[in-house]
Structures are given as C-alpha cells and as structure tokens.
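Good day; I would like, with your permission, to put a structural problem before you. A protein sequence and the structure tokens that stand for its backbone fold form the material at issue. The record follows directly beneath this note:
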Amino acid sequence: MENTHALITNDAVVFGILALILGAIFSTSSSEKPFFKKFYNFVPSVLLCYFIPALLNTFHIVNGEQSKLYFIASRYLLPASLILLTISINFKEIKKLGSKALIMFFAGTIGVMLGGPLALYIVGNIYPDVLLSNGEPVWKGLTTIAGSWIGGGANQTAMYEVFGASSDLFAQMIAVDVIVANLWMGFILYWSQKPQAIDKWLKADSTPIKKLEQKLEDQQAGKLLPMSTPRIMVLLAIAFGVTGLSHLLSDYIAPFFEKNYPQLSKYSLTSGFFWLIVLATTFGLILSFTKARETESYGASKLGSVFLYILVATIGMQMDLGTVLDNPALFVIGIIWILIHIIIMLVIAKLIKAPFFYVAVGSQANIGGAASAPIVAAAFSPYLAPVGVLLAVLGYAVGTYGAYICGLMLSWVFGLM
C-alpha cells in the first residue's frame, strides 16, 4: 500500500486529537440532553471510537500506517489492559457459561477455513482475472488472511513465510484483511448494544451470561473505593510492571525458540508478540488468585477499559475506507469469505440456541484476536472481557494449524480453476 503524505504527522498531535475525540464521545454519550440520548440509542459510542479515527486516515488528515501509536497501544496498553481485566476474573462463575462459548469459537474457525476456498471458487468463476495478481497466484496471499482471521498477526506472518507470497501481494491482502474484518467488527459493536433482537431470533437463553454479569456487579457493589493517587499508582504499577516483566521474558523466550527450534515458527512460538500476550494474560490470571484481585475495588477493569478504548481508536486510525476501490475483486472475495463465516456461526448458534454474545466474542476471537475480542466482550459488559481474552489466546494456539489447512484447500481450489 502506498504511503500518502498526511496533514498531521506528529504522533503527539495525533494522540491529542484521538484523546479529544474519545473525550467528546464519552462526554456526549453520558449527556442527559434529548438529542444525544436519541443519537446514542442508534449509534453506540464504541462504534464512533472506531470509525471517526478511520475517517481521519481515509481523508489523509493522519497516516495510520506511518504512525507509531498503534504499535505503542498494542505493545503497552493492550497487555496492561489484559492484566487489569483478567485480574478480577472469577473462574468458577465463567465455568457456568458452559460449552457454548467453545463451540461458537470453533464454529468461527471452521467458518474461516471453509469460507476462503469457497469465496475464491465463487469469485474466480465469475471473474477469472482475480486468480492472478501481476502473474502471481492470489491464493498464496489469501493464506495470510486465513492466518490473521483464525489467529493473529503472528499466524499471518507464518503463512506469509510458509506459502511464499510476494510483499506486493501481501500488502494487498493486508488491506482486505483490515477493511473487511473491521467492517464486521463495527457491525458487531453496533449490535452488542442491542443483542436482545438477535437472541430472540436465535431462541437463545442469555440467562447464564446475565447471571454472571449481575453476580460480578453485585460483588463490587459498595466495594468501590474513591479514586486516589496512591490507588491509581498501585493499578499502574501492577499493569505496567507486569507488562514490563512480560516483555522481558518474551525477549528471552521468543529468541530461544527461534534459535533452537526454528521449525516451531509455524506455531507462532518464535513471535515475541505472541509470548507477550500469553504471558500478560497468564500473569493476570495468576494474580486473580491473590490479594491483587482486590484492586478491582480501585477500578482495575475501568482503567483497563480506558486502555482498550485508546487501542480501538488507534486500530481505527489504520483503516483507509478509500482502499476498497483499489482492487474491488479482492474485496469481494473478502466480503463473501466473512459472510460464509457469519452464516456458519449463525446456523450453529441457531442449532444450539447460543446467545449473540457467544457469536460476537467467538467470531472476534478468530477474526480480530487479542486486540479486539476483549473489546467486543467488554462492549456487552466490562465484567465479561476476560471471556474474550481467553478465547483470543486459544485463537493464537489453533491459528497456524487452521490457516495451514485452509492454505492447502485454497491451493487445491486454485488448481481446479
């Protein structure tokens, strides 16, 4: 993708703009004025946190690709938020959610694995020119989307290396990946504020989810302590102290695997980011069994949510809505692919009567990974964010396997055309 000169290139200024956008969104969303009440009834605040920065990038006010803000948010704020959100996790209560969460996660994985080859076959028959990009088989690039949509960036890079796509084709696939996946995420965020309609169609019983949410809320009722400098510093110490420890260990673990077991790169075990997310989540879970869990009364999950909303803004800032017009046929493949994923998930949800929460979080644990699954879960309720974290980590584990099998099927379909 071309680097277009942006009006504002100073990241300090860009971050200030994002802060102003987030501040305006949340101040108006909590306003008692009739206009804002009606507006946010139809447009969820979290959706604006995502799409307004996307418009800034689309109209070249900022350049999300050149900005370092997403890197900082994903490497520092994301692990810190995962720690703060998992520190209050209640395994006994989450266990009561049952097996539907896992079923919907794997339904999403299967949807991605089957959706890619089917989409390539459908579009390839209608528009044969899409099969090659500058003489290169396009299926090789599609394997990187499979890696991203089942696992994450580490799995995507693994498929890039395994199947040998060119850097130019890879760049096109990144555009398809980001645009299509983020449009689906926007749809999910919208309906996360109105899940009752879809639950009714699915004939789903969301009682276990509501009970878990209510119980966790009741546990915190009356236990919230006033915000104070010492308490905020304790939260920051835990969040960024453990994040620093996770970085330190990942800096040793990833190179160790890369040097001694390079063949394990296909399982993402040589990726520093993979270990960063796994370690941060693991430490957060360990702390949930200690007195550190009491920091929830300080507002741990609230601060974690703040970090996530900043991450949402930086993710949106990378999205260029104008790239849809660059290579329409590839985006048609991506749209059909995601639709097949959605259809399979809704059919399975209908059969097992799973609530939309499981559909949304199960899908994003695949499509978006650790960066967006907790965001989607928290959009339903901040108390449910750990469910998204756990499923996203599972996505990292199965991402390479599923994407590799999907790649083989894509190659087979290409050979039929």
Q: What stands out?
A: The beta strands are 132-133, 136-137. The longest helix spans residues 229-260.
